[in-house]
What does this fold into?
Amino acid sequence: MALRAVSALTWGLGGPGVGPLRSGTFLRCATQHRLEKMPSSIGFPEASRRPFSSHRILVDVDQSHGVATMKLKNPPVNSLSLELLTEFVISWEKLENDKSCRGVILTSNSPKIFSAGLDITDMYGKNAAHYAEFWKAVQEVWLKLYTSNMVVIAAINGSSPAGGCLMSLASDYRIMADNPKYTIGLNETLLGIVAPFWFKDNLVNTIGNRASEHALQRGLLFPPADALKIGLVDQIVPEDKVQSTALSVMSEWLKIPDHARQLTKTMMRKPTADRLLKQREADIQNFVSFISKDSIQKSLHMYLKFLKEREK
Ligand SMILES: CC/C=C\CCC/C=C/C(=O)SCCNC(=O)CCNC(=O)[C@H](O)C(C)(C)COP(=O)(O)OP(=O)(O)OC[C@H]1O[C@@H](n2cnc3c(N)ncnc32)[C@H](O)[C@@H]1OP(=O)(O)O
It folds into this structure.
């Protein structure tokens, strides 16, 4: 039964205060062409452009010298809510349309958490229309990040499970704070849910098939040193050096002529992005029907309860 499968004993969460349960033993160039974008997005739904009632700013954008820093800012844990995802897409489109912006550093406003992943409350106790809108927003954020013409560097300054890991994976380069309390990985199975094929594809493209098979089935969350070993992140640096390292790595990437780098990125990533684009609607329907199942809703309920009640 799904409930048993997600017993608290198996929830190998990482992050501050969860030590024993943690899984894992583990110049710009003269040429500044803007290429035609990869045919990624089929457009963000009008319904999702509606103003949300809180009017909070959930994504901070700061831009200077052709590089933007985007900070996720959704306390307490930077969960990727429908509201945040919607704001993210709008901010992203503005940057993509700004010809002076060549690179984005994606990071978090919170000191210990990059992102807790998809907001579980958007996947629990809602109706089918909400699940569909939420999932379309998740797809859209991934497509935007994964197919962006800009250089995208993830400055992972805290724990980054599931959807947080996906945002990092969609970036071109990942720098993580070297603090063993932080973890990163696709831990969906620990919640009794399954990472969809495009999460899996992005992981396989990054760390290879065997390591993905192992990591996905067990829902492994890796501390930084282990994440570096398997190639889930590209570099680990002291906590206070994450942003400065991201800036200096960015300046190296920006030395490459944009048009050559962009065409190469397209060559590498388009087949993976296209796989989702070809079956985007079916993927939404699959998500809605999966997440609406009583057994899955019960698993998510238990998981939320576990998160609230666990010892910190
Ligand atoms: C067919 C395809 C089907 C499905 C595919 C679905 C793919 C899903 C992808 C996902 O991203 S699912 C989300 C997975 N995320 C997690 O498992 C992370 C869970 N959270 C944590 O591990 C920890 O919260 C932490 C991020 C390590 C931070 O720990 P900390 O001790 O600092 O905070 P605390 O645990 O006390 O949390 C504070 C507060 O926030 C709530 N919370 C945490 N994570 C989420 C979340 N992802 N969504 C919504 N809410 C979350 C937590 O319950 C606490 O609430 P409270 O203050 O009311 O108790």
In short: The two ends are 28 Å apart (CA to CA).
